[in-house]
Write the C-alpha cells for this entry.
Amino acid sequence: VAGGARSDAQELYWRALCEMVHTRRFPPEYKQWTAMLAMKPGEDARDLTRRRDLWITCHGQKLLMRMLNTEYERAADASVPASAAGFTRGRNGPEGTLVLRLAQEQSMMDGTPLFIGFLDFGTFFMACVKEIQWEVERWTGVDPAVSDVVRELHTEVRGRYETAHGLTEGDNIDRGTGQGCVNGAVRAKLVIGERVAGSA
C-alpha cells in the first residue's frame, strides 16, 4: 500500500473511532469477548478450575482502551499506595524481591521478628463489581468522560470460551474489569488502592 493511501486509511479509521467515542455507539463486535483458558506450568489439563481465563477483545476496542490507558495510569499514580507495585510502569518483580531481602537483613540486625504475609486475589479482575468500580473511579479522579466510554464498552458484554470443540455459546458478563483487557489491571488496582487507603 502506498504511503498516501495508508495515511488516508489511518485518518478514516481514527475519525471513525472518534465518532464512536463522541456518540458512545460501538459495533456489536466491541462487546464480544472470547476467553482462552491458559494452562499454568505443571497443572493437570483436566482441572479447568486451575486454568487462567484470558479475555480477548477485538482490535478496535483494544485500541480505544490503549488510548484511555494514560488517564487510568495517571489516576493510579496519584491514588494507589506506592507499595502496590504490580502493573506499574518501571517497576517489576526484582524490586519486590530486593525490598523483602532488605527487610530481612534489617530484622536480623535489629534482632526483631519479621512477619511476611502474601495475599492472592484469585480471579480478582473478573470479580470487581461494576457499580463499585465506577464509584472508585470517581473517588480517584478518573476523568468522567473516560469512565463513560469504558462503561458503555463494558455494558451488555457477551463472553464465550474457546475450547477444542469450538466456541461456547455466549453468556452475559455483568462484572469484572476484564482479565486481559489493556486497562483491566490498572482499574482493578484502583479498587485495591481504595481498600488500602480506607483501612489505613
The mean pLDDT is 86. The radius of gyration is 20 Å. The beta strands are 32-38, 52-56, 157-163, 166-167, 171-173. The longest helix spans residues 3-23.
